């Protein structure tokens, strides 16, 4: 049976030598595809005091990006990882939430692989999609997720000056059991006891409902984030939050919008340069990473301006990309994706037995809902303008923190009634799917049904558990199986086999079967696709804790070297672009020589980053000095150029 692993407590790196004490506080974490956030309740008596905790760079959200160095010894998370993506594309992992708990052969995974600069491989033991670094080290998506959770946990501990070991983590409402279990695995690896896995739209509704004084009514939460789309219909009354229906698409989000714009940019570049081989471009990791970064920025810009420019100097073989993209063009390109959100909305309304005009508020969640065209489609679908008062990037984490307060007893008089998103059942004779728990059933829930054998003298039965809405199991998803043996020989149809489904508040499924005449029984907790054994999780936690202090020191050194590398690369590129102008200055030879010296110094440090006997600040001082001299060079060259004209 599955059991939540005990958190392994070790001494953390103490800030300013202050002693931290274990806390009963429960943090709320939104582990997002593109960005993640962590929140806590400052004052349990004031629900409006729920607060986002800024990260160590002073930002309220953290990019869900994890990078490993060339030897897989050091880990960068968030903005630090994102900054070095251009020079380390094969070891920088983003959008891994789209892979978590999914089989490698999943058709959506195979589509994603075409767009990713890093390598996705099949784990031979469980056939899950795993990640491979440039040196061939294989990591599970849960392990990458745990790095993000560890970073958020550390930021919370630094902010609160307390040891934190309990959390509520959110997942897309349409995540299946294996994806939920893999998310809990990530929390365990980060040293967190995950008290509850909460659906993201439900968390957003908690945040909205409890921050809107005495709110009662029917709300719809339209959640389009970086990787997934969810729609939930909830009824809020008297502190009771009841999810009436949920629907969605676990592979529809901002990443898909980015992919369309990336392809558009590549097509336009090849159009302008027909001598280039498009396939070579698509397989050039550095080139594609630069286009992805620029395309994502353009997409974000077009949420508040009608026209933007994608400018990438020296994009490929000395050729530049300069492309104007307009809001209406992005709308046209991505309309098939936007249209995909409408059928799930209609299904959720139908399941909830609610007409669009009966919805009192439509809450928008996820960064993609800032796109004007999406807001327009939401208005058309519901017949009313959506509520834009909540921050779509933060409201899920805030709701998770509120649920954490409910579970810890800090918050009273709030009851959350969530639902299971997919129908659950077993395979019966002929490959038929026999449902036991219909979709949108409130959890926790327990249900028992009686089955029998299909063959005379049958001494055992295979219990195969499926999720889905189709009548035949071949069209649904197998999530686990086990065998009940020792049935006495009897004619078919005589043995009474009781099959019980027990779903907890996290949506984790326990299935048991017993034969009534003998009392023989067997059971399973459905973790078949979580991808990691408990032993693997324990080992990863122990290794992370054992090296925590040294990892922190080395991470800071790596970040400093990476930052210097990027600054020097930018300066080198600028020199190349304006060489004809700046070489007229008398300062040019000296600055060029210093630039080469700093580049050599960076190479020296990168060749042995773990050597603590070297002073990494030497690189910082040299880089700062070159930046100052380069500024003087450009000022001098500008004056000479102006004088010459």
Could you list some keywords that capture this structure?
28 strands; 17 helices; disordered N terminus; six-stranded mixed sheet; 4 domains; 645 residues; Nucleotidyltransferase, domain 5; Substrate Binding Domain Of DNAk, Chain A, domain 1; globular; ATPase_NBD; alpha+beta; Actin, Chain A, domain 4
Structural notes for this entry:
This protein has 645 residues and is α+β, with helices and mostly antiparallel strands. The chain folds into four domains: 20-252 and 345-417, Nucleotidyltransferase, domain 5 (2-Layer Sandwich); 254-337, Alpha-Beta Complex (Actin, Chain A, domain 4), CATH 3.90.640.10; 422-533, Substrate Binding Domain Of DNAk, Chain A, domain 1 (Sandwich); 547-644, no CATH class. The chain contains 17 helices and 28 strands. The strands form seven sheets. Strands 1, 2, 3, 4, 11 and 12 form a six-stranded mixed sheet that branches. It has a six-stranded mixed sheet with strand order 18-13-14-15-19-22. It has a four-stranded antiparallel sheet with strand order 21-20-24-25, with no helix packed on it. Helix 5 crosses helix 12, helix 14 runs antiparallel to helix 16 (588-606) and helix 14 runs parallel beside helix 17. The longest helix is centred in the C-terminal third of the chain and has 30 residues, at 548-577.
